């Protein structure tokens, strides 16, 4: 008995159609995840707040601190020699270093402190109701945690990382968020100039 060639191809055609539908559903799922991540203000690599979310919340915290005369401090953290890590171990090392830093920050702050991926190499923290000396304690804790454990690569290689941190506090009720972040960034540049592995304020 002869079997039509079309019938022989039918299972393959159905399999291709099913595979195509699966690929399309995965594509839609990834797009949805990206949109949702953007809506909730999360950085996709580290899981920290996004820069935009940080700036929105931080502006409100500056207003609140001025209204109630509460101290407010900011930290800006930069991974030392991140470009060198990327060049030596590949770009995955930079991603692992940023995730390592994000975890060190999460372990070092309170639930209501704000931690965000501020730029490609930087993480920013906002510490409400925290004076400068308290913020320096937090910064030193993050600096130590960042350096104390080796970061393991998928291929078995491992490396350590250090960070430089700039710390600043609002000085008066006229200070804006921009003033606070600029002061923290100036302190960071000073730390990097004498670093690596330094906290400056």
TrEMBL record:
Q: Which Pfam families match?
A: GGDEF
**Name of the protein this chain belongs to:** diguanylate cyclase
State the PANTHER family in the record. DIGUANYLATE CYCLASE DGCM-RELATED (PTHR45138:SF9), REGULATORY COMPONENTS OF SENSORY TRANSDUCTION SYSTEM (PTHR45138)
Q: Does the keyword Lipoprotein apply?
A: no
- Offer an example of a GO molecular function term for this protein: diguanylate cyclase activity
User: Which positions fall inside the GGDEF domain?
Assistant: 70-201
Query: What species does this protein belong to?
Result: Iodobacter arcticus
| Membrane spanning stretches | 6-25
User: What EC number is given for this enzyme?
Assistant: 2.7.7.65
Q: Which residues form a coiled coil?
A: none
Q: Which reaction does it catalyse?
A: 2 GTP = 3',3'-c-di-GMP + 2 diphosphate
């Amino acid at each position: 008995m002869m079997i039509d060639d079309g019938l022989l191809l039918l299972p393959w055609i159905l399999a291709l159609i099913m595979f195509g539908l699966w690929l399309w559903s995965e594509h839609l799922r990834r797009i949805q995840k990206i949109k949702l991540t953007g809506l909730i203000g999360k950085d996709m690599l580290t899981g920290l707040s996004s820069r935009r979310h940080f700036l929105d919340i931080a502006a409100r915290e500056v207003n609140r601190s001025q209204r109630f005369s509460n101290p407010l401090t900011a930290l800006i953290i930069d991974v030392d020699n991140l470009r060198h890590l990327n060049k030596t171990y590949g770009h995955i090392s930079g991603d692992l270093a940023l995730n390592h830093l994000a975890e060190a920050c999460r372990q070092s702050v309170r639930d209501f402190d704000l931690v965000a991926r501020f730029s490609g190499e930087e993480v920013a923290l906002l510490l409400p109701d925290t004076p400068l000396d308290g913020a320096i304690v937090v910064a030193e804790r993050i600096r130590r945690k960042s350096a104390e454990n080796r970061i393991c690569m998928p291929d078995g290689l491992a490396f350590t990382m250090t960070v430089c941190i700039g710390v600043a506090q609002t000085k008066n009720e006229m200070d804006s968020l921009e003033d606070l972040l600029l002061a923290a960034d100036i302190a960071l540049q000073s730390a990097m100039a004498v670093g690596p592995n330094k906290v400056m304020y």
